[in-house]
Amino acid sequence: MAETRSCEFGISGKKRAAAADSFEGDDEIFVAKKSMLPTLAVAPAAWENDPAASLASLRHVFGEHGGVNMSIEASATFTVMEPETMRRMFTGELGPDRDFFIYSRHFNPTVLNLSRQMAALEGTEAAYCTASGMAAISSVMLQLCSSGGHVVASGTVYGGTHALLTHFLPRTCNITTTFVDITDHEAVKNAIVERRTKVLFFESISNPTLTVADIPELSKLAHHKGTMVVVDNTFSPMVLSPARLGADVVVHSMSKFISGGADVIAGAVCGPESLLNSMMDLHQGSLMLLGPTMNAKVAFELSERIPHLGLRMKEHCLRAMEYATRMKKMGLRVVYPGLEDHPQHHLLKSMANKGYGFGGLLCVDMESEEKANRLMHHLQNSSQFGLIAVSLGYYETLMSCSGSSTSSELNSEEKALAGISPGLVRMSIGYTGTLEQKWSQFERAISKDDGFHIVKQKLSFLRLQ
């Protein structure tokens, strides 16, 4: 196995001199650290208070000419001043911690800066940003599991993840998965086979049913049997911090809330430095050898959006809470963790970071796909409340009928076991316009359809109050 490389790049912020390809007396530094990725240089007190404080504790990276924003390093390959330096880089003696880069599939300065932000956001030792959320999940699974390995996973996960675990990994790698109700801890415990089950995988808030996982209890249960806990936190950045609650690895589709613009595809793996180092190993690393490389220009775009992620999440969550409350009063069947009748409301409240709310997604169960489609039609085409589109975290409200879209990889039986109703409409609540303006658009859409007569009667009654 190749020697791993030191990478506390960016903590000192020093650029190497053009001719400084050798560092006399410094060789022992690189040998002793044996680290490839940036550790989290954040005071524990700041992290305990708020993930935004953790982000603010990072050193600000300035541009090449002193710009307040860092420069984009768009190069695929990097030069050295002396031939001997390249040998030292390939043996791991010199690395990104001293501004030595080989090739951007391995390390890129702009992507490394974003990785530091993600590590701070999630409170992990290290992070590495990938080309997509599925690239992050796939790479973690392939690194932690070998042929014959076993995974226990929540039965309610994103359709692409479900297909990966159900079809692709068994066919190509002989890695099998047992799906369980993640709220049934006894079932989880019984499904984990000691010394065989390598990963317990679940979403912090499930897609699309919005079931909340008890991260501390599930982590204890898995660790007791020697199993790693991997949590997809795409639905709840800032709201939940799985690593602080006991999880080993946190994955993200950064295309969603972290991006906020529905204009880039990106992912991230946040976790222990030892794991991320192994994933970047020259001979056996899944990230290194599969090459799900993030483009530096994408990394720059995302690094400029993370500083206001907390502000955006608070507004997403505030509006989701308000709309869920009003929809419930209308008589609609609403699923939202912020409502007190949600089965895991108090659990989420006990785990959540203070001040960020209960998530930016809610679901309305219309019972049938026909009714769900009619509702979405009126919300988009009659009143401009939102857009019929997959994904989430956009500044406009996005709506989809999960059973026939983002969860379509599940068969009918799997959907039923996951609790995905045929008429379940998932709404990612945006923050454009004023709250009251958007709510009036929702009311207008409801009033357009005679099929919503019960809701309309309640709406008329409420207006008289």
Describe this structure as you would to a colleague.
The chain has 465 residues and is α/β, with parallel strands linked by helices. It contains 18 helices and twelve strands. It has helices at residues 27-33, 44-49, 51-56, 83-90, 109-122, 133-144, 159-173, 185-191, 215-224, 273-279, 286-290, 296-305, 309-330, 345-351, 369-381, 412-418, 435-447, 453-464; strands at 126-130, 150-154, 176-180, 197-203, 228-232, 249-253, 267-271, 334-335, 361-365, 387-388, 398-401, 424-428. The strands form two sheets. A seven-stranded mixed β-sheet has the order 1-7-6-5-4-2-3, sandwiched between helices. The chain has a five-stranded mixed β-sheet with strand order 8-9-12-11-10, covered by helices on one side. α5 (109-122) packs parallel to α12 and α15 (369-381) crosses α17 (435-447). The longest helix has 22 residues, at 309-330.
List the helices and strands and how they pair.
Layout: H1 27-33, H2 44-49, H3 51-56, H4 83-90, H5 109-122, E1 126-130, H6 133-144, E2 150-154, H7 159-173, E3 176-180, H8 185-191, E4 197-203, H9 215-224, E5 228-232, E6 249-253, E7 267-271, H10 273-279, H11 286-290, H12 296-305, H13 309-330, E8 334-335, H14 345-351, E9 361-365, H15 369-381, E10 387-388, E11 398-401, H16 412-418, E12 424-428, H17 435-447, H18 453-464
Parallel strand pairs: 2-3, 2-4, 4-5, 5-6, 10-11
Antiparallel strand pairs: 1-7, 6-7, 8-9, 9-12, 11-12
Helix pairs in contact: 5-12, 15-17
